Amino acid sequence: MTDFSSAALDDYHQLNKFDCGVPSLNEWLVAQAYRAKESGTAKTYVWTLAGSDQVIAYYAIAPHLVSRNEVSGAVDNSFAMRSSGLWRLLLLAQAV
Questions:
Q1: 13-63: per-residue pLDDT in tens?
Q2: Among 10, 46, 82, 94, fewest CB within 10 Å belongs to which?
Q3: From CA 18, how far away is CA 56, in angstroms rounded?
Q4: Distance (Å, whole) CA 35 – CA 2
Q5: CA 50, CA 17: separation in Å to the nearest integer?
Q6: Which CATH code is given to the segment(s) 4-94?
């Protein structure tokens, strides 16, 4: 069995060999993930093999605000506030 480790993206993580087969997802991880972290627009989590810093998968989430008028009628009755905060999944990629 292979052990994996999951953590928030940090400076020690190695991104250079990551390739999920989708160039735009590879490029986002290398060129934008740290910038998004610093600006607070997204938070990226990575998976590595135990004992390694090489990223083999990642996902990114971003804060999102949902207003009451965006919620369907079935849920609307229990949506007491005008708006509610949540995290939206932005990207999900695994190395091939």
A1: 999 999 999 999 999 999 999 999 999 999 999 999 999 999 999 999 988
A2: 82
A3: 6
A4: 31
A5: 17
A6: 3.40.630.30
